[in-house]
Amino acid sequence: MQKLEHFSLPFLGMKDGIHTYDFEVGDDFFKEFSHSPIEKGQFTVQVVFDKQPGISEMDLHIDGFVKAVCDRCLSDIDLPVTGHYHLYVKQSNEEIEEDEMIFIKEGVSRLFLAQVIYEYIQLSLPLNNIFDCENSDPRPCDDTVLQKLKLSEQEEESSGNDIWNNLKGFISEN
């Protein structure tokens, strides 16, 4: 994790007010986390930090893509990923776990964000690896696979084998 030390903010010497930091996250970042579902990706993470006495606020804006296999056509795609998150930061000597709040010990000079950035990128991933790729140039879709899927759907419709009718019969029997 020492390779990720530059994903931090200089908290102790920071003056009150709004500060903006930009981080570039790439393949080497994800290699530092064992069993990461992301192997390849490129992200920009903008952190807007509003330091205040007591409780500070932090906004993270994530924008980029992850290398994935399309769930529709099985082609390699650059799956777009975006996310916006809001966190609070409070200094405390107690070890407390709370959602949307980061506690740091008093006197700590840096606020390390690598784990936070990693988790929020994971949360930003879509459930399905598909996106509207019609406007992409070049279009990454495998048209052969898509055509076979379309033919398969047409055959099901024309065969008259409606799975829902079979299930209705099952319900009326019981």
What are the SSEs and their pairings?
Elements: E1 8-9, E2 17-25, H1 27-31, E3 41-51, E4 55-69, E5 76-91, E6 101-104, E7 111-112, H2 114-124, H3 143-159, H4 163-173
Parallel strand pairs: 5-6
Antiparallel strand pairs: 1-7, 2-3, 3-4, 4-5
Task: Please tag this protein with its features.
five-stranded mixed beta sheet; 7 strands; 174 residues
Descriptive notes:
There is one protein chain. By secondary structure, the chain is of the alpha+beta class. It folds into 2 domains: 2-135, no CATH class; 142-174. It is 25% helix and 34% strand. It is built from 4 helices and 7 strands. The protein has a 5-stranded mixed β-sheet with strand order 2-3-4-5-6. The chain has a two-stranded antiparallel sheet with strand order 1-7. A hairpin with a 3-residue loop joins strand 3 (41-51) and strand 4. The longest helix has 17 residues, at 143-159. The chain is elongated and about 70 Å long. The N and C termini lie far apart (59 Å).
